[in-house]
Amino acid sequence: MKKAAIAVTLTASIFTLTACNSGEGDSEVVAETNAGNITKDDFYQELKDRYGESVLRELVTVEVLNDKYDVSDKQIDKEVQNVKDQLGDQFQSVLQRQGFKDEQAFRKMLKLSLLQEEAVAEDMDISKKELKEKYERMKTEVKAKHILVDKKEKAK
Q1: Distance between CA 5 and CA 11 in Å, rounded?
Q2: Which residues of the chain fall below pLDDT 50?
Q3: Is Signal a UniProt keyword of this protein (predicted)?
Q4: Please, is 106 exposed, middle or buried when counting C-beta atoms within 10 Å of its C-beta (0-12, 13-18, 19+)?
Q5: pLDDT in tens, 74-109
Q6: Which residues contact 122 (CB under 8 A, 6 or more apart)?
Q7: What pLDDT is recorded for position 75?
Q8: Cα pseudo-dihedral 131, 137, 138, 141, rounded to 10
């Protein structure tokens, strides 16, 4: 039922985005070149054609998750602080290398991630006992020994 509602919402949103393309073009020039100018309308249309569906899907997903689940600013602050504690002075440079323009963009991604975790965990009831049993089953014991020899050929 949930998947059907999301699919219907997503489909309706895509049709709406497609219908929003008006016949009147915006001739404001956003880039000038010797070969010709790029108008705002040309730029928008190209972005919509290339990335419109994925951006729209992300926006709808965020709206649906925000409507159904709650993630507090305290939870986000805690996650940001954990990352800052791990990275120390490297925090800002790591954000930039990962493609975040600033900490706010990182916080936005964290919120989406936490909302997705809430959605996945919604129907899961796992007791501490079950979790411990699963951990014990997955735990492996490794026994390693070093054999020292004086020549490389002998080791091979």
Answers
A1: 10
A2: 1, 4, 8, 19, 22-23
A3: yes
A4: buried
A5: 999 999 999 999 988 999 998 999 999 999 999 999
A6: 69
A7: 93
A8: 130
Residue 123: DSSP 8-state: T
Q: Which two tokens stand for residue 21?
A: 């393309």
Residue 2 identity (one-letter amino acid):
K
What is the C-alpha to C-alpha distance for residues 6 and 152, in angstroms, rounded to an integer? 62
Q: How far is CA 156 from each of CA 126, 143, 149, 153, rounded to the nearest angstrom?
A: 48, 20, 10, 5
131 token code pair: 């979790």
Residue pair 91/84 in contact by the 8 Å Cβ criterion: yes
Cross-strand bridge partners of residue 29? 39
Q: For helices 40-68 and 103-121, give the axis angle rounded to 10 degrees.
A: 50
Residue 20 is given by DSSP the state T
Of the chain, the end-to-end C-alpha distance in Å amounts to 61
- The reported pTM is 0.54
